[in-house]
C-alpha cells in the first residue's frame, strides 16, 4: 500500500503527460485531416489554422482589392449614402406615401462596434420619424443567437405588422431561410453588415468587406516589417464571414511576404490577449500585432509595456481606445475601418424605397482606413467620446450630436 | 519506518499520545509529496522544468516573477474556492462575480482618483453580500449550493449584461489599475515584484493561518461529515456561510487585480469558476469536502496555468484548452480520491490490525 501511494503523484504526472501527448497527437491528426474536415462547414470552425483555405475565395479577394481603390458614387460628405456603380433594384412597386413601420431583426449589440452603430441608427430613426417617413421601428435583439434570430424574423413576419424588414444577420448560412421567408412577404427587405446566401433582399448594404480589411492591414504590416519577422494575429472568434475573410486575406499576404504569423482566438478577452502576448514575448521577440477587430487592442499594447519590450507595428481599428493609445505611445500603426456609418444606411434605404427611387442591389459603402497623418483630425473630431466609440460613426449631422454618443446611453 | 499504533480506535486504555510529527523531516516531505495535496507541488516543479527545457528564457527570474504575478488572481480565486469545496459545497458564481466587480470598478471609478477607496469598499461589501446570500441559500433554505450559486451566476451575469449591453466600457483611472498592473520596480535579480504577487503571498499566509485556527479545523470537519460536526456542537450553517463569504471576497480581490491587469471587459472573469474548481481539484482537494490543503489549491492554479503555457509553447491550439481542462478534472478527481484513501492511514499495515474486536488489537 505504501509503495503504491508513494507513486501516486508520479502516476498523476504520467496521466497528465499521457493527456498531453494525446492532445498534441490529435491536433496533428486534425491538421492532416483538414482537407476532409474543410469540406463540412462545421469542421472548419474548430481549427484556427486550417479553415482559412475554406474561407478564401480568390475572386472575392480580387474584387475587393480592386474596390479599395475604386471611385464611389455620391457625395463624399455623406459616405453612408455612397455606393459603387452596379446593378440597381427598381423599387417603383413599393412607392407609397405615409409613415411606414420598420421592423429590425438585430443580431446583437454585444460589442462596442454594434453599440455605437445602434445609437447612430436610433438617431437616424428619430430624424426620419420627424420627416414622416417612418412611424416606428420594432426591434428584436437576438443576443448573438441564430435560433433566437430565426424566431425573431418569423415573429416579425407574422405578428409584426411590418411595412418593411431590416435584418442584420447573426450568421450567414443559418439565417438564409429566414431572410427568404421575409422576402416572400413581398415587402422590402434590407440586409446589412453580415451577408446571407440569397440575393432576394431589396438591397444588401455593407462596406467593401473583410478581404479589403485584410489586404489593407497585412500590406501595412508587411511594408513596415522585414522578411522573417514575427506577427501575432489576435482574432475574436471563428465562423463569422466578415472576420474570417479578414484573416484569410491577411494570412495570404503574410505568407507572400515571408512574415511569420501565428493566430489565436481571444474572444476579445483582454486577460487572454495579455497572456497570449506575454507567452509569445517569453519565447522570442514579436515585431507586429494584427487584429481582426480593435476590441482589446489596448490590452495587447499594454502587454508589451508590462514586459518591458519595444512597441510592435500594429493594426487596430478606428475605436477611440486604440486611436488614443496609438497617439500616446507613438507606435507605428494604422486603424482599419469597418465603416460604422453603415448603421444609418438601412433606414435611409427605406426612405428611398418608399419614394420609389432605385437602390443598389448590393450597396457597397466606402471603407477607408485611418492612417497616422489623419489620426489627430479624427481624435479632435471625436473629443470627449467614450473609449468604445468609433471614429467613423458618421452621425455628426444628426440631432443629439455629440451628447447622445458621449453619454452612450444604449437605447 | 513507522511505528505500528495498535488499537488506536478500539482500546482507550492503551491509547498513546499521538505525536505531532512522525518520522524525520525528509521522510515527512516524501510522505507529503505522495499525497495528492503534496503531489501538486511536484507537478508544478515538473511542468516548470518542462517549460524551461522547451523555452529557457521562461526560467529567467524576471519572466518567472511576471508569470507568477499574472497567475496570482487565478490562484487567489482557487484559494477562495477551496474554502467552499473543502466544506463540501461549490461556488459557481465566482466568475460572474469577478466580472461584476470588474465592470463596477470600470463604470464607478472612471477617471476620478477620489473614488478609488469608496468604490473598493463598495466592491468588498458586494462581495460579502453575495457570499452571505450564497451561504444562506445553501444552509438555511437547504438548496444545494450547485443550484444556489448557479442562480447567483445567472443573476450577476444578467446584471452585467444590463449594465454594459455586453460590450466594454472605458478603463478606470491608471492609479487604480496599478494594483493589478504595477509592482515594486528596480528590484535586483527579479527586476520587478508585481503587486498581485505580493497580494497573493499575503493572502496565502493568511489562509494558511486561518486553516490552522479553530475555524479551519471546523471547516474541514463540516466538509468531512456535517452531521458529526453538528452533533459535536459546530454551528455548521455559520461555518459554511463564512466559507462562501471568503470565496466571494477572493473573487472580489481577483476582480480588483484583473481590472488592473487586463482592463474592463465583460469577458474578464468568464470561466473563472471552472478554472478555480479545476485548480482546487488538481491541488488534490477532494470534491465533497473534508480533505485537502489550501496552499495545494493555489499550487493547483499554478500547475494549470503552467500546463496551458506549456501547451501553448509546444504549439497546441488554444481551442483544445477546454478539452484539456475537462480531462484534467476527470483524471485528477479519479486519482485524488484513490490516493487519499490510501494515503489516509499510511502507517497501518492491514485493516485487520486495527479492527477493534480483533484479537491482535491488544485485548
Key descriptive features of the protein:
heterodimer, A: 411 residues, alpha/beta, Rossmann fold, six-stranded parallel sheet, 13 strands, B: 363 residues, mainly alpha, two-stranded antiparallel ribbon
Written account of the structure:
Helix content of chain A is 46%, strand content 14%. With 411 residues, chain A is an alpha/beta fold. A 6-stranded parallel sheet of chain A has the order 3-2-4-5-6-13, sandwiched between helices. Chain A has a 5-stranded parallel sheet with strand order 8-7-9-10-11, with helices on both faces. In chain A, helix 6 packs parallel to helix 14 (345-354) and helix 9 packs parallel to helix 10 (241-256). Chain A starts with a helix and ends with a helix. Chain B has helices spanning 25-33, 36-54, 61-86, 94-109, 116-139, 145-164, 174-181, 195-212, 214-224, 226-231, 236-261, 272-282, 294-313, 321-343, 351-354, and strands at 183-187, 191-194. Chain B has a two-stranded antiparallel ribbon. The longest helix of chain B has 26 residues, at 61-86. Chain B starts with 24 loop residues before the first helix and ends in a 9-residue tail after the last helix. The model of chain B is unreliable at 1-12 and 346-363 (pLDDT under 50).
Estimate percent helicity of chain A: 40-55%
CATH topology of the largest domain in chain A: Rossmann fold
Please write the string of helix (H) and strand (E) elements of chain B. HHHHHHHEEHHHHHHHH
**How many domains make up the coordinates of chain A?**
2
Most extensive chain-chain interface? A-B, 62 and 61 residues
> What structural class do the secondary elements of chain B suggest?
mainly alpha
Q: Can you list the strand order of the major beta sheet of chain B? A: 1-2
The Cα radius of gyration of chain B reads 22 Å
Strand content of chain B: under 5%
Shape of chain A: globular
Structure class of chain A: alpha/beta
Number of strands of chain B: 2
For the biggest β-sheet of chain A, the strand order reads 3-2-4-5-6-13
Biggest sheet features of chain A: 6 strands, parallel
- Average pLDDT of chain B works out at 84
Amino acid at each position: 500500500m505504501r509503495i503504491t501511494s508513494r507513486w501516486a503523484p508520479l502516476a498523476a504526472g504520467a496521466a497528465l503527460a499521457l493527456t498531453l501527448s494525446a492532445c498534441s497527437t490529435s491536433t496533428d491528426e486534425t491538421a492532416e485531416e483538414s482537407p476532409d474536415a474543410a469540406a463540412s462547414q462545421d469542421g472548419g470552425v474548430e481549427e484556427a489554422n486550417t479553415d482559412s483555405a475554406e474561407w478564401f475565395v480568390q475572386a472575392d479577394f480580387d474584387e475587393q482589392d480592386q474596390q479599395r481603390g475604386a471611385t464611389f458614387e455620391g457625395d463624399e460628405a455623406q459616405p453612408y449614402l455612397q455606393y459603387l456603380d452596379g446593378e440597381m433594384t427598381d423599387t417603383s412597386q413599393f412607392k407609397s406615401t405615409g409613415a411606414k413601420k420598420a421592423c429590425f431583426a438585430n443580431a446583437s449589440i454585444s460589442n462596442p462596434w454594434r453599440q455605437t452603430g445602434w445609437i447612430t441608427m436610433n438617431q437616424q430613426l428619430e430624424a426620419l420619424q420627424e420627416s414622416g417617413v417612418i412611424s416606428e421601428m420594432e426591434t428584436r435583439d437576438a443576443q448573438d443567437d441564430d435560433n433566437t434570430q430565426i424566431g425573431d424574423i418569423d415573429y416579425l413576419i407574422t405578428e409584426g405588422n411590418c411595412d418593411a424588414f431590416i435584418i442584420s444577420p447573426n450568421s450567414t448560412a443559418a439565417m438564409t431561410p429566414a431572410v427568404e421567408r421575409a422576402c416572400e412577404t413581398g415587402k422590402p427587405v434590407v440586409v446589412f453588415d453580415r451577408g446571407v446566401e440569397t440575393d432576394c433582399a431589396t438591397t444588401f448594404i455593407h462596406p467593401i468587406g473583410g478581404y479589403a480589411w485584410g489586404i489593407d492591414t497585412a500590406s501595412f504590416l508587411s511594408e513596415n516589417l522585414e522578411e522573417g519577422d514575427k506577427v501575432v494575429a489576435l482574432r475574436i472568434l471563428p465562423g463569422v464571414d466578415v472576420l474570417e475573410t479578414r484573416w484569410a486575406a491577411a494570412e495570404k499576404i503574410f505568407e507572400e511576404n515571408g512574415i511569420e504569423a501565428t493566430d489565436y482566438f481571444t474572444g476579445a478577452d483582454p486577460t487572454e490577449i495579455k497572456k497570449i502576448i506575454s507567452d509569445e514575448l517569453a519565447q522570442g521577440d514579436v515585431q507586429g500585432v494584427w487584429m481582426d477587430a480593435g476590441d482589446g487592442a489596448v490590452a495587447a499594447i499594454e502587454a508589451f509595456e508590462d514586459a518591458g519590450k519595444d512597441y510592435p507595428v500594429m493594426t487596430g481599428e478606428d475605436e477611440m481606445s486604440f486611436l488614443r493609445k496609438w497617439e500616446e505611445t507613438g507606435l507605428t500603426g494604422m486603424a482599419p475601418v469597418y465603416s460604422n456609418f453603415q448603421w444609418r444606411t438601412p433606414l435611409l434605404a427605406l426612405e428611398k424605397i418608399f419614394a420609389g427611387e432605385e437602390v443598389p442591389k448590393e450597396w457597397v459603402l466606402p471603407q477607408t482606413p485611418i492612417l497616422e497623418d489623419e489620426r489627430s483630425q479624427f481624435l479632435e473630431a471625436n473629443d470627449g467620446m467614450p473609449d468604445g466609440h468609433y471614429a467613423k460613426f458618421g452621425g455628426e449631422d444628426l440631432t443629439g450630436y455629440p451628447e447622445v454618443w458621449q453619454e452612450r446611453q444604449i437605447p | 519506518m513507522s511505528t505500528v499504533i495498535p488499537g488506536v480506535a478500539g482500546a482507550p486504555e492503551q491509547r498513546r499520545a499521538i505525536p505531532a510529527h512522525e518520522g524525520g523531516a525528509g521522510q515527512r516531505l516524501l510522505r507529503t509529496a505522495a499525497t495528492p495535496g503534496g503531489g501538486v507541488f511536484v507537478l508544478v516543479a515538473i511542468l516548470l522544468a518542462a517549460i524551461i527545457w522547451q523555452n529557457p528564457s521562461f526560467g529567467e527570474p524576471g519572466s518567472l516573477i511576471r508569470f507568477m504575478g499574472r497567475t496570482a488572481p487565478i490562484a487567489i480565486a482557487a484559494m477562495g474556492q477551496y474554502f467552499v469545496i473543502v466544506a463540501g459545497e461549490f461556488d459557481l458564481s465566482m466568475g460572474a462575480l469577478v466580472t461584476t466587480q470588474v465592470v463596477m470598478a470600470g463604470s464607478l471609478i472612471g477617471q476620478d482618483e477620489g473614488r478609488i477607496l469608496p468604490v473598493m469598499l463598495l466592491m468588498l461589501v458586494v462581495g460579502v453580500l453575495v457570499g452571505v446570500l450564497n451561504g444562506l441559500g445553501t444552509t438555511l433554505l437547504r438548496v444545494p449550493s450547485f443550484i444556489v450559486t448557479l442562480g447567483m451566476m445567472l443573476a450577476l451575469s444578467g446584471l452585467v449584461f444590463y449594465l454594459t449591453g455586453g460590450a466594454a466600457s472605458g478603463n478606470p483611472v491608471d492609479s487604480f489599475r496599478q494594483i493589478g498592473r504595477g509592482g515594486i520596480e528596480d528590484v535586483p535579480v527579479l527586476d520587478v515584484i508585481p503587486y498581485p504577487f505580493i497580494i497573493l503571498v499575503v493572502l496565502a499566509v493568511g489562509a494558511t493561518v486561518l486553516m490552522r485556527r479553530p475555524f479551519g479545523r471546523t471547516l474541514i470537519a463540516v466538509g468531512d461529515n456535517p452531521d458529526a460536526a453538528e452533533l459535536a456542537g459546530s454551528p455548521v450553517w455559520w461555518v459554511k456561510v463564512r466559507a462562501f463569504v471568503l470565496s466571494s471576497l477572493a473573487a472580489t480581490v481577483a476582480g480588483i487585480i484583473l481590472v488592473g491587469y487586463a482592463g474592463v471587459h465583460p469577458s474578464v472573469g468568464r470561466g473563472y469558476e471552472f478554472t478555480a474548481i479545476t485548480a482546487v481539484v488538481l491541488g488534490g482537494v477532494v470534491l465533497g469536502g473534508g480533505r485537502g490543503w489550501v496552499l495545494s489549491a493555489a499550487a493547483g492554479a499554478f500547475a494549470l496555468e503552467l500546463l496551458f503555457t506549456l501547451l501553448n509553447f509546444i504549439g497546441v491550439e488554444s481551442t483544445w484548452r477546454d478539452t484539456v481542462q475537462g480531462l484534467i478534472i476527470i483524471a485528477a478527481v479519479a486519482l485524488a480520491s484513490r490516493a487519499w484513501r490510501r494515503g489516509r492511514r499510511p502507517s497501518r499495515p492491514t485493516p485487520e490490525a486495527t479492527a477493534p474486536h480483533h484479537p491482535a488489537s491488544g485485548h
